[in-house]
Every structure is written in structure tokens, then in C-alpha cells.
Design goal:
The structure is a single chain. The chain folds into two domains: about 25-75 and about 95-145 and about 165-205, ABC-type transport auxiliary lipoprotein component (Rossmann fold, 3-Layer(aba) Sandwich); about 210-299, Thrombin, subunit H. β3 (about 100-115) and β4 form a beta hairpin. By secondary structure, the protein is of the alpha+beta class. α2 (about 40-55) runs parallel beside α7. The protein has helices at about 1-20, 40-55, 65-75, 90-95, 150-160, 160-175, 180-205, 285-290; strands spanning about 25, 60, 100-115, 115-130, 135-140, 210, 210-215, 220-225, 235-250, 250-265, 275-280, 295-299. The longest helix has 23 residues, at about 180-205. It comes from Myroides guanonis. Keywords: Signal. InterPro entries: LpoB. This is Curli production assembly/transport component CsgG.
Length: about 300
């Protein structure tokens, strides 16, 4: 038993070390109305939700079955046979996952239209803080196609490669297609849901990045310490924020004031990218001149 405990501790510790730079999340089993949604459709929707988080490369998804095994071993070590052991397993949930993601299917509709089939679905996603149980975010997310904003389209056209632009255009076209078969229509709806889920995760789990250096010749060009390793891509927009701290009572609160928008113009590798300021707020010039603290937030 001691060998098994040591192995579990070793495996989980290594997982934690590999994932410590990412946000640990675990998924609560999906809920839905079994009279209106089939088990197979529900499984596919849940897999789509999970994959939308995984593909951002920002999250370490904790396998709930492995967590349960760790919890069982933790209970075992409290027995008399392990009372003198120096090896302990810290709480699997708190070490592995900082947040729980709960998904509920609100609606799913497969409709036969003139040119074929169209599927639409809506899910409610809640994010719970593991340490407090508090719901920190909740949103109803649909599979409707959402046109990219003009700023995003302009940035892609200017900074993304021709190959990337073509791939994006083909992807957007595919997500608006009417399919001849219901199964294909459902697959397209899941693709649209995936895109909208990524927007949800970007808004609720922004990553703070450091500016490594500003270009000596172009004051709006800078290098950041992040790249493809967290899913950054050429043409992606970033928020540039002025970071300050305020003390309220016995608490110190960090305030991020948006002062500009930047666009990634080159992803060098997994750890480094170049970005360019493409629009600014009134406070931007003053913050730069005063050497104020500036951070980058993914969006």
C-alpha cells in the first residue's frame, strides 16, 4: 500500500509541476433534460465544451477519476497503519483544480429546412471557485454564428499571413453552412459553440503577460514573454493595461486600467511573441511618459 501511495503522490506531484503555469479546472458531469436531449448528444456537447477549454492551451484539465483515487488514498493514510508515515497527499482538488466548470444543456433543436438540416443549441456554463464554492461567472452560450468584430477582421487582414487568413475564411464559411444530414448539422453547431465557448473562457480567464522590452525605433512595438505555448496566434488582439494598487481597509486591490489595444504580429516560438499597439486611450501617452506599470491581458 505504501508503494501505491508513493506512486500516486509521485504522479500527481509531476502533473502539478507540469501544470502549475496553467489554470487547473475540473468539469462537473453535464446536466440536461433526458426527455428532450439524448445521452449521445449530451456526451458530444460536453466533450465540445471540454475541448474548447483545452484548445486554448491555458488550462490543465484535471481528470475527476484520478482525483477520486487520490482522495481514497488520502483517507487511507489517516488510518493507524499510515499514522507514522511522513508521506502525505495534499487535497487533490485544491492542488489540481482551482475551478469547477458546470454545464447544463438548456435547449437542443434539430430542424429540417429547405436546403437540408440546421441544429441550434444553448448551454448554461457556471464557473465555481473550488476554495469558496462561489459562482464567479455564469453565462448562457448559444451555437449561433457570431461575426468577428471589425477590429479583429482588420487586424487579421493586416497582420495574419495569407495562409492563416484563407483558413479563417474557410472556417467561417463552413460554420454558416446548411447540411444535408442532421448529424453534419449538429457537428457544425458544435463548431460554432466551440468558438463561442472560447470567447467565454477568454473573457473570464484572461492571462496576464509581461512586456519583455520595447523596440528602440518603434515605440509601439514590443516583445512579450508568451507564444504558441498558451495558444497565441498572429493577428490576435491583446488588451494593454496600466496596473496600479489601491488599499481599501486591510486589503490591497490591483486595478487594471485599459489604455490600449495591441495585435500580435509575430509568434516566434512557444515562449515569445512580438506585438504592436494599434489603438490607444487618452491615458496611454501619459502612462508611457511616466514609465507606469504596464501589463498585457489576453482576450
Amino acid at each position: 500500500m505504501r508503494t501505491k501511495l508513493s506512486l500516486l503522490l509521485f504522479l500527481f506531484t509531476n502533473f502539478y509541476m507540469l501544470a502549475q503555469d496553467k489554470i487547473g479546472i475540473a468539469f462537473i458531469p453535464i446536466t440536461y433534460d433526458e426527455e428532450s436531449v439524448s445521452n449521445s448528444d449530451a456526451r458530444m456537447i460536453h466533450e465540445s465544451v471540454i475541448n474548447s477549454f483545452v484548445k486554448t492551451k491555458r488550462f490543465a484539465v484535471v481528470d475527476r477519476e484520478k482525483l477520486q483515487a487520490l482522495e481514497d488514498e488520502k483517507k487511507l493514510q489517516r488510518t493507524e497503519s499510515f499514522i507514522d508515515s511522513k508521506q502525505t497527499i495534499q487535497d487533490g482538488v485544491s492542488r489540481g483544480a482551482s475551478y469547477l466548470i458546470a454545464t447544463n444543456i438548456l435547449s437542443l433543436r434539430h430542424s429540417e429546412v429547405k436546403r437540408g438540416w440546421e441544429s441550434m443549441l444553448q448551454v448554461q456554463v457556471k464557473v465555481l471557485d473550488v476554495s469558496t464554492g462561489e459562482i464567479i461567472a455564469t453565462e448562457n452560450i448559444t451555437s449561433e454564428y457570431i461575426e468577428p468584430s471589425k477590429m479583429i477582421m482588420d487586424a487579421r487582414e493586416k497582420f495574419a499571413s495569407k495562409k492563416e487568413i484563407k483558413a479563417m475564411e474557410e472556417k467561417n464559411k463552413k460554420m454558416q453552412e446548411i447540411k444535408m444530414h442532421k448529424e453534419d448539422a449538429f457537428s457544425v453547431a458544435l463548431d460554432r459553440l466551440d468558438e463561442n465557448m472560447k470567447s467565454f473562457s477568454n473573457v473570464n480567464f484572461p492571462i496576464t503577460l509581461d512586456i519583455l522590452s520595447w523596440d528602440a525605433k518603434n515605440r509601439n512595438l514590443f516583445m512579450i514573454a508568451a507564444g504558441s505555448g498558451i495558444g497565441l496566434s498572429q493577428g490576435q488582439l491583446l488588451d494593454v493595461v496600466h496596473t496600479t494598487e489601491a488599499t481599501i481597509g486591510d486589503r490591497t486591490i490591483t486595478r487594471n486600467q485599459k489604455i490600449a489595444v495591441a495585435c500580435i504580429i509575430k509568434v516566434e516560438d512557444a515562449n515569445f511573441s512580438e506585438a504592436l499597439i494599434i489603438s490607444t486611450e487618452k491615458a496611454y501617452k501619459k502612462v508611457r511618459e511616466s514609465n507606469g506599470a504596464i501589463k498585457i491581458l489576453t482576450k
